[in-house]
What does this fold into?
Amino acid sequence: MAIRSWLRNLFASRKRRTIRKAPARCRGLPMAVLQVLKGGAPGPLPLDRDTITFGRDTDCNVVLRGRTVSRMHARLVLVNGQYFLEDRQSRHGTFVNDEVIESGVLFQLLRNNDRIQIGDFVATFHDALPAEVPVPPGVGPEEACPFSSP
It folds into this structure.
């Protein structure tokens, strides 16, 4: 009995650690990007998480301004190596290639060069970082992969 309670206390006192899957760029896979064309800082927006949220709310990964953007407007999800875009029941809709994501369809599969529009924000989706898109200067190996050990 004493050993059982000692083990219970030992494991209860340790903090549980969440094991996160390393982003594609850390696993040696090509990293997908959104090439921002309008409504944000122009240039590549790396898709370095399994889920990326878009909206006016400051808790979103990509904060967008504008009257036609909902607080939690849309989210981009990586599932089995493919990216899907979901409209979060926004009032003004989310568009892929100038077509609104229908309310009955929860997720829209993204393909290379698809054009995404959320309010005034316009970007194109790329499976991997296009060669002609420059990588932001000053990004070293430490910043490129937060999961690498020192």
User: Anything to note?
Assistant: DSSP finds two helices and eleven strands in the chain. The helical segments are 2-13, 141-144. The longest strand covers residues 33-38. The longest helix spans residues 2-13.
